[in-house]
Design brief:
The protein is of the alpha+beta class and 292 residues long. It folds into two domains: 3-196, DNA ligase/mRNA capping enzyme (D-amino Acid Aminotransferase, Chain A, domain 1), CATH 3.30.470; 199-288, Beta Barrel (OB fold (Dihydrolipoamide Acetyltransferase, E2P)). Helix content is 16%, strand content 39%. The strands form five sheets. A five-stranded mixed β-sheet has the order 1-12-11-2-10. Strands 4-3-5-8-9 form a five-stranded mixed β-sheet. Strands 13, 14, 15, 16 and 17 form a five-stranded antiparallel β-sheet that branches.
């Protein structure tokens, strides 16, 4: 495969379902909270490319050490992850992606080193995408690991048991893949499935901001010792029941949040509470991926 051919490739995507299941025709992996990436290795070249086609070599230069254990032409699919006390933490990686200052980037690289967790091999000098997944896994297993290259562990049949484990550990979710699945670049398919560890709770609406296309952003808060603390925003459309209720709610002039203000927000007296689903709370108490 030529370098120019690789730059046109994008990874296969997953459909989402709500509940885990057991099936002898599937293998199951932990869903890592990081950045999806394809890695192209050739004799003199290594290219790390994001799902959206951005070359990440300069953002994560430590991953160039993948070439120390991958000594033949390969295309690899996996996740760029930072492990914080053994658990994936995407926030330092997001900061590394945003940072343009070279000195700060070097500091972040030292403090938050990335690892490439590889779960598939798509080419090893020949196209492997028509080969069943379990055989591709066997080929991938022939490579050694080092400090920046890990192979994702998988479990046969035991999807519900793995999901119980990730809920206990408060991880992002699991992935279920048909063991005989082929690989389809750039397509979202039902033979690979993601099941997220979704949490839920009630939060108060402390304000809103009108957006385009008949949507508004709700400003959400959580009460602690009778004080409202900001936890994030959630966009809703005029087709959702809560939309008109919010627009008719009693406005107030001052922010009801103890720790947050926004001049673009129409503040409300926080008496409306709604059930919100989210994947986790960040270290500064913000909701990740909130939705109704």
């Amino acid at each position: 495969m030529r370098k120019s051919d690789f730059l046109d490739l994008s990874p296969m995507l997953l459909e989402e379902i709500k509940k885990p299941f057991n099936d002898k025709n599937y293998l199951y992996e932990i869903k890592f909270d990081g950045f999806r990436a394809l890695v192209y290795v050739n004799k003199d070249t290594i290219i790390i490319k994001s799902r959206n086609g951005v070359i990440l070599n300069e953002v994560f230069p430590e991953l160039l050490k993948i070439k120390e254990v991958i000594n033949k032409p390969c295309v690899l699919d996996g996740e760029i992850v930072y492990f914080d006390e053994g658990k994936p933490n995407i926030r330092p990686l997001q900061e590394r992606m945003r940072t343009k200052n070279k000195i700060k980037s070097a500091v972040l690289q030292k403090n938050y080193p990335a690892v490439f967790v590889c779960f598939d091999i798509l080419n090893n000098g020949q196209d492997l995408t028509n080969m069943p997944l379990i055989k591709r896994k066997n080929i991938l297993n022939q490579f050694k690991e080092n400090e920046v290259f890990q192979k994702a562990k998988f479990f046969l049949e035991k999807g519900q048991e793995l999901f119980s484990f990730i809920k206990k550990e408060n991880l992002e979710g699991i992935v279920a893949k048909e063991i005989n699945s082929r690989y389809y670049y750039g397509k979202r398919v039902s033979i690979w499935l993601k099941i997220k560890n979704i949490q839920s709770d009630y939060f108060y609406i402390g304000g809103y901001k009108p957006n385009k296309n008949n949507t508004i952003s709700l400003y959400l808060g959580e009460k602690q010792k009778n004080k409202l603390h900001f936890v994030g925003k959630l966009s809703i459309s005029n087709k959702q029941e809560i939309y008109n209720r919010v627009l008719k709610a009693k406005p107030i002039k001052k922010s009801p949040f103890e720790d947050y203000t926004d001049k673009n927000c129409n503040y409300l007296k926080p008496y409306i509470d709604i059930l919100v689903y989210y994947t986790e709370k960040t270290t500064n108490n913000m909701l990740r991926h909130p939705k109704l």
